[in-house]
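worker-03 picked up job from queue 'complexes'. Input manifest follows; two sequence lines, order preserved.
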Amino acid sequence: MNILLVHAHPEPQSLNGSLKDFSVKRLEKAGHVVQVSDLYAMHWKATLDVDDSTDRRADTRFDPSLDSRRAFESGTQSQDIAREQDKLRWADALILQFPLWWFSMPAILKGWVERVYAYGFAYGVGEHSDSHWGDRYGEGTLAGKRAMLIVTAGGWESHYGPRGINGPIDDILFPIQHGILYYPGFDVLPPFVVYRTSRMDEARFSGICDALGQRLDDLWKTTPIPFRPQNAGAYDIPKLTLRPDIAPDRSGFAAHIA
Amino acid sequence: MNILLVHAHPEPQSLNGSLKDFSVKRLEKAGHVVQVSDLYAMHWKATLDVDDSTDRRADTRFDPSLDSRRAFESGTQSQDIAREQDKLRWADALILQFPLWWFSMPAILKGWVERVYAYGFAYGVGEHSDSHWGDRYGEGTLAGKRAMLIVTAGGWESHYGPRGINGPIDDILFPIQHGILYYPGFDVLPPFVVYRTSRMDEARFSGICDALGQRLDDLWKTTPIPFRPQNAGAYDIPKLTLRPDIAPDRSGFAAHIA
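worker-03 finished. Artifact:
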């Protein structure tokens, strides 16, 4: 299988760098083909702006969505964007690997999402009407592919537990797993999270690699998070709220998991 | 009062640009002093990296936290970072204004947080031990100041409701309001959110300005979101989970609101 690993850490000798190297080796050893987008090493441009297409008229108002659509449709996207889209088309699975900074992904990775996820590629796909709100949340360009997060966090696991002060890790990651990965069609596997990264020794690192290796070995066997598809009957359209008979007493992020 | 407005949109003639201009005028008319950090206009460097301090030795391993601490303590931070920290010290209130892109803030603003929130400034403040886990979540450098989000979203309000497909807006914003604003000490006011931004005419824009103007007039009267302070007894330390007798049947983000 083809795997794209997008890696967002500035230091190759970091824990994240080591986990990236380990993952690539493990996947290649299993016979997969791996491409790595090492965003810091690539000097990835983090900021979505007027320079993201090659044919923009300077005298017009810049609309991030409409400019993205025009550039995507006319083949005038900046080359770094088109290259990452090609990698996504090529990949059978996507791994996003990053340290949790301020309870989300690093800016450089957020900027990868914003720029690569063009209108017509990752959103604005399919019919948009009051009866069909686009091919998204389970459908879309990237449907049929798998995705998984590998995340490191400085805090303790209990800080990210159901009653932990930072909020539950599944809720912190929901905007990424549901809003960024499931949205354009990926099947999303449970995340691999390493806590308390400042307390690391060789024994612990070795145990983490064993667990991560198992997850990578099982990439095509693991059951995805059962997010509810938008267009299979669970939601009223165009309100896009859960139908009254679906999990009637639930609300919040967890209600969107079957 | 002194107000810092951090604005993250690439087009001055956008809805966000107009709301920024309106806010500045309204606040100045009320006698406040306003500074605007217009991140796109400033060409803000979004990516946290080795160039964020002026005295780094190229032959050492880059540690984002420890390098940030060293540079903050020794006065060798990049000047753009130090300037924003000065603005935060000067401000009585902070407004972050941005379009919701992929269910979070734009990368350029995330990078403002990552770079300006230095170790020793926004985290790593106060005693860190097994009985006191830092001055944070209600305490810290920015305690006594107020903060508020002004956010625009393309989707409908129902899509962000309790059972809306995107998840409730309060939960989507929790990592920002609690994790980025409350963490270093801000009192966080309820957000001002504009939905369905593609359907805007003069009448609707005028109504939005009226509502936003009222919120700005009430900046010092509005009751902050009652997030639970970390060090006032609600949490077991160092586990940092809610004590069993605090909201015993609740979990998730909402449990951290009294």
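worker-03 released lock.
The first helix of chain A runs from residue 15 to 29.
Residues 151 and 208 of chain A are 12 Å apart (CA to CA).
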